């Protein structure tokens, strides 16, 4: 094999794979417990408040949806910021993946025009996620509007 046919490879970080699996397990357990608790809370709320005070039930449900919307917006906003930073470092280094990026598997390195194309895709994704974040925040504001008056 001559030198020009070999492609540079960004090596995987084995510790990252283990960390990802641990975080996945933690998220599944915490999410399951949260859903179980939410179901119990909603059952109790419907039993005690739903029949007697439907306006209070609507208020509680609006608050719950607003809280869930804020969680979604914060996650999307954080991902948008990360994608923006990733596009910046890719443009600066003219290399994908950037040297400091930890990956879970070996990735062939893209340079110059291919790396800049990746950076543009990341920037576009960041902008779209940012717009989605703003839309969710506006919807949350609209959802909570009756309580803000």
SSE layout:
Layout: E1 9-10, H1 14-50, H2 54-93, E2 95-96, E3 107-108, E4 110-111, H3 113-148
Antiparallel strand pairs: 1-3, 2-4
Helix pairs in contact: 1-2, 2-3
Uncertain ranges: none
**Roughly how many Å is the radius of gyration?**
23 Å
Helix content: over 70%
According to DSSP, the number of beta strands is 4
Helical stretch tally? 3
Strand order of the largest sheet: 1-3
Assign an overall shape: elongated
Q: Output mean pLDDT.
A: 89
Instruction: Please give the largest β-sheet.
Output: 2 strands, antiparallel
Q: What series of H and E elements makes up the topology?
A: EHHEEEH
Describe this structure in words.
This protein is mainly α and 149 residues long. It is 76% helix and 5% strand. The protein contains 3 helices and 4 strands, in the order E-H-H-E-E-E-H. The strands form 2 sheets. The protein has a two-stranded antiparallel ribbon. The protein has a two-stranded antiparallel ribbon with strand order 2-4. The protein is elongated and about 70 Å long. The mean pLDDT is 89.
């Amino acid at each position: 094999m001559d030198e020009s046919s070999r492609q540079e490879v960004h090596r995987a970080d084995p510790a990252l794979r283990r960390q990802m699996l641990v975080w996945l397990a933690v998220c599944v357990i915490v999410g399951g417990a949260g859903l179980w608790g939410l179901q119990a809370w909603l059952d109790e709320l419907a039993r005690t408040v739903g029949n007697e005070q439907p306006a209070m039930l609507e208020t509680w449900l609006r608050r719950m949806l607003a809280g869930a919307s804020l969680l979604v917006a914060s996650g999307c906003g954080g991902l948008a910021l990360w994608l923006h930073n990733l596009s910046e470092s890719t443009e600066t280094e003219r290399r994908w993946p950037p040297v400091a990026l930890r990956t879970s598997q070996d990735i062939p390195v893209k340079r110059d025009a291919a790396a800049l194309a990746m950076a543009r895709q990341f920037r576009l994704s960041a902008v779209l996620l940012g717009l989605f974040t703003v839309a969710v925040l506006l919807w949350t504001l609209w959802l909570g509007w009756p309580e803000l008056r």
